[in-house]
Amino acid sequence: MTATTPQVHKRPGKIIHEILPVGLLQCNCSIVGDTETREALVIDPGDEVDRILELLRKHQLSVTAIVSTHAHIDHVGGFRKLHDTTGAPVLMHADDLELYKALAIQATWIGMPTPEMTKVESFLKEGDTVRWGPFAAHVYHTPGHTRGSLCLYLPQDAGTIALPAPQLFSGDTLFEGSIGRTDLWGGSLDDILRSIHTKLLALPDETIVFPGHGSPTTIGQERESNPFLK
Questions:
Q1: Quick check: 69 and 171 in contact, CB under 8 A?
Q2: Per-residue model confidence as pLDDT tens digits over 127-141
Q3: How far is CA 210 from CA 31, 111, 112, 158, 173, in A?
Q4: Where are the alpha helices (DSSP H) in 18-131?
Q5: Cα–Cα distance for residue pair 19/3, rounded to 1 Å
Q6: DSSP 8-state code for residue 69
Q7: pLDDT at position 145
Q8: Which residues contact 21 (CB under 8 A, 6 or more apart)?
Q9: Under 8 Å between Cβ of 154 and 163
């Protein structure tokens, strides 16, 4: 008798993805949800939480986790209100906790009121997986823009769902035609280039990149034409 491996039947990708530029610096907040379970992940709710909640209600989504790609104020300013409203845990990399605790200092840099802080439920690290509904996103620690910057990667066979293409939520590490600033607290040009070359450019060319600001791109496009990666 020979052993057999159970087959996992993947259903076609029915993903809800809303990108909402929020706040003074127009951070791209991503809401990624499932049409069947109605579970959602919210990435980088930097501000304008009422608009985020409106979209969640529109799609009848329940937030299972709130993830920070890094702890700059324009990406974390809405944590407290979104957590208090949804009860969803806040997740980030431990290397950015010091930066998160310095929200008051960050607020003075750009001349805005200091947002209320909330508890960080747990810390993500390289190799972790964030799960919600049928999805399973891989965590890449990509220091350089900040010490605790991270990216979330959804492969094409993300969990029990088959997506049209792999997806990367790159925060402020990789942009269309550019990379994240490295002249701020905890930044390092050597680190960000190492993160991009060793981790992000190792992904398939067809991977759709959703950056923390600006327009989507692909890994292939950035490999070919991003002047910072030559």
A1: yes
A2: 999 999 999 999 999
A3: 12, 27, 26, 16, 11
A4: 49-58, 73-76, 79-86, 97-101, 103-110
A5: 45
A6: S
A7: 98
A8: 27, 28, 29, 213
A9: yes
